[in-house]
Specification:
globular; 6 helices; alpha+beta; Phosphorylase Kinase, domain 1; about 30% strand; D-amino Acid Aminotransferase, Chain A, domain 1; five-stranded antiparallel beta sheet; 2 domains; 14 strands
Amino acid sequence: MNRRRRVYEGKAKILYEGPEPGTLVQHFKDDATAFNAKKKDVIDGKGVLNNRICEFIFENLNAIGVPTHFVRRLNMREQLIREVEIVPLEVIVRNVAAGTLSERLGLDEGTQLPRSIIEFCYKNDELNDPLVSEEHITAFGWAAPQEIDDIMALAIRVNDFLSGLFLGVGIRLIDFKLEFGRLYENEMVRIVVADEISPDSCRLWDIGSDEKLDKDRFRRDLGGLLEAYTEVARRLGIMSENEPVATARGPVLVQ
């Protein structure tokens, strides 16, 4: 893969030129970052788990008619994706008060929201991804009004699916971040779910204990991040129940 042209490198993933036009290879790194990479570490096996969890979720989204950039998994760390033009927004769907929402509004973490809330942030690390409104988005041309409608409709569908998926395995979906891209197909352009959906981009709490099974374990120095991600993979049936958390060759996952 190193012989292929590197297109982009982010905090947790690398994009390489794909094997055919209009495709990219998305490689999941073991890097753990928080607070726009002000806090960093490397956790062996995290990329493998995120790749498989993301594959599982995106395959299911594609199956129910939610369009994504995902094509197929290539190996334990990489997946083939369609090349898209990323909309420069982070779309946050919140079901329960946590994180910055709790801080901004003085809400106790774990407070059930009256309804799911969708927030937009301008995707810019140097500015710490500031919260923006639909007025900002249209005024600065980041997305057209119809694209915003499409993004919100897809975000709601993803939230409905993920909430049910995780509830079925004893996990409460607190909130999650989505990114979207413009997929160009001949004369048509459509909005699709892009980037990743994994414990890196979701807040996931055990229903019985409220134990955090997501990147907050790294953000808040709770420890046990790999064990938490492994537990999510086990509950989703991606990792065998009897396998250890990690071995010298990394997590052992169900093929």
